[in-house]
Amino acid sequence: MTVGGNIPDFRALADQLAAYAVQIFAEYGLRDPDLVVSGTGRSMEDFLAQVLGDYATGKIKHHSSKGELISLLGKALKRDVHDALIRKRSHLREENRDVTPAPSDDGTGTEKAIDGLPHPGHSVDDLFNEQEYKDRVRAALSAEPDLVDLADTVFELNIDKRQEQADVLGISTQELDNRKKRLRRRLVGYGFFAARKQ
Amino acid sequence: MTKKPSIEDRRSRLNKLSEAVFGGPEEINRDEALELLRSAGMDADRIADSVYAKLYKQAQEYWMANKPLPPLLKKAIEDLRPSTAPPRNEKEMATQAKARIERVIQQSRHSGLWMQSTTPEFRPSAYRSRKKLSKKDESALDEIAKRLNDKLKGPQGS
Q1: What is the pTM of this model?
Q2: Does A194 touch chain B (CB under 8 A)?
């Protein structure tokens, strides 16, 4: 329930959160064109309805002094997607335990999952791998070097303040905001373009 | 030996990186949101319809249990109700009719602009090639052509 704030427009919230969800999916390389976290059966619409429903029924409470409602709901949405990914990986690990190692060419044996394909890095421990995350983002931005530079102010220089990022890049904060818009579009377009091609 | 960070620590680290690079959801305004969805090949209306169906199902549980609907859930269902859904009352019918009329007016405005940009000027060149016209006839026809052009341009053109 919003305390001390305005009553929100749920259609606008749904559009903004949907775009944010698409961004999260692209950040984590989830390229299912139907936007489903495979193995969990949960779609983007499920995550959106969950968050909006929890807010609408008072399970998520918002106080305007604690920032914008959309930020609160965005965080809840991201947490739900992460939790689904963790559950999926935990489940896969359990299933992989029951799999007999299949002999590989060098005779050492390779663990195979139930679909018969190797899952070398599919453990919960590997899920939030920082290097993999950075590589994924850089690959999405590689066609536009100025956007890679922007990402590297964070990845390489650990600068997270807007003004400092703009200073390092030698641009105004307004230009920085424009680049961030391009960056989001590039990430999303890259992630889902690749998905459609598969 | 350095202890491997916990999954929570790594999750929180990636959240910080993401926030610093891409910004939070508050930085995506509605226009940009629709553009992002389009570039991912998604239809915002279809997503909203699906979310509406799921929230409606949640509302049904309240109705079946004879419990009052939480006001925000009621508002969510009203806001997300598809414009193609049959109207439930006169107010909704009026709102839908208004929206439809606005769409038609908007479309006709666009076609009006198209007309303005593509309607050729009345060019009275044909009669000028006729050799038998007297000076008087020529100037009378020029006057008519001017009047027709003024008419075509409308009130602001005159």
Answers
A1: 0.72
A2: no
B155 CB-near residues (< 8 Å, 6+ apart)? none
Query: For residues A64 and A4, what is the distance between their CA atoms, to the nearest angstrom?
Result: 6
Domain ranges, residue B151: 121-158
Residue B58 placed within a domain: yes
Each residue of B73-84: pLDDT tens digit?
999 999 999 877
Question: Which segments of chain B have a pLDDT < 70?
Answer: 1-2, 86, 103, 106-107, 109-132, 153-158
Arithmetic mean of pLDDT over chain A: 80
Interface contact B24, partner A, CB < 8 A: yes
Q: Is B10 on the interface with A (CB under 8 A)?
A: yes
Q: How many domains does chain B have?
A: 2
Is B50 among the domain residues? yes
Q: Which chain B residues are closer than 8 Å to A10 by Cβ?
A: 75-76, 79-80
In-domain check, residue B115: no
Question: For A177-187, what is each residue's pLDDT tens digit?
Answer: 999 999 999 99
| Dihedral sign, Cα of residue A36, residue A38, residue A186, residue A83 | positive
How many DSSP H helices and E strands does chain A contain? 7, 4
CB A168 within 8 A of CB A159: yes
Tell me the sheet residues that pair with B5: none
Phi and psi at residue A13, to the nearest 5°: -60, -45
Q: How many residues does chain A have?
A: 198
Cα A154 to Cα A79, A138, A179, B14, B116, distances in angstroms: 22, 12, 14, 11, 51
Identity of residue B69:
L
Q: CB count, 10 Å around CB of A131?
A: 8
Instruction: Tell whether B94 is covered by a domain.
Output: no
